[in-house]
Amino acid sequence: MNCYYCNDKEKLDSLMLKICDLRTSTLYLFKDQKHKGKCILVFNQHKTEIFQLTELEKQNFMSDISDAAEAIYNIYNPDKINYAIYGDIVSHLHMHLTPKYINGPEWGMAFKDSIKPIELSDYEYNENILKIKNFLLNNIK
Ligand SMILES: [Zn+2]
CATH number, domain at 68? Predict the structure, then answer.
């Protein structure tokens, strides 16, 4: 199967860094941090549409989204979080949790990958991962 979430750890590692496992998904810090605090939440099985999930999986996935967003909101103080599920090219169910800032990039429009990425140092990535992980450990319901 041609899916890097399932089968290409190298490609996955080039795009994002694992933060932690949640109920039914895995949370990653997106390496391109032009939207400060951007994360990707990846469903743990290769499913492509929300209606393919069981009722319990749907509930748990929504709780994972909520917890991840709450962490992002509290740590980065964005003006809004954008929640996006696309998947035309990478169909494995995953959600972009994209914090947006009034004077930041792409405020008032959909985010794109066409704007120049902003990468951090390994130290900075680890700092961000620890902040999010600690928030979730201390605040998950
Ligand atoms: Zn997959």
Answer: 3.30.428.10
